Known about the structure:
By secondary structure, the chain is mostly beta strands. The chain has strands at 4-9, 31-37, 42-48, 56-61. The chain is 0% helix and 35% strand. The chain has a four-stranded antiparallel beta sheet, with no helix packed on it.
Amino acid sequence: EEPVVFMRWKEYFLVPDHHVESVTGASYAGFYYMAYDKSSKRLEGFYYHRESKDYQKLELDYDERKTFGAFEFR
């Protein structure tokens, strides 16, 4: 079993209003390239689109205070 899982994430809509089709200054055209480290339970990655600013990083940490496995945006 591999210690890291690599993924490519795609956004399809904005929460809480999935009817919003665009946001000024934002783009749904790119992808998040993510890596999940199973031992540290850390999820991190970068957003990429050819017209976006470089180094848009996303980091999610597991919160053991929860009663179930989840990630939280901060």
